[in-house]
Amino acid sequence: MYRNEKQTGQAIKEFLASEANTHGLNREDIHFTTKLASNSEYVKARKSITASVKQSGLGYIDLFLLHSPYGGKTLRLESWRAVEDAIEAGEVKTGGVSNFGVKHLKELLASKPRIGPAVNQIEVHPFNTRTEIARFCQDNGIVVEAYAPLVRALRLKHPTIASLSKKYWCTPAQLLVRWSLQHGYVPLPKSVTKSRIETNADIGGFAIDKADMATMDGLDDLVTDWDPVDAD
Question: What is the chain's mean pLDDT, rounded?
Answer without folding.
Answer: 95
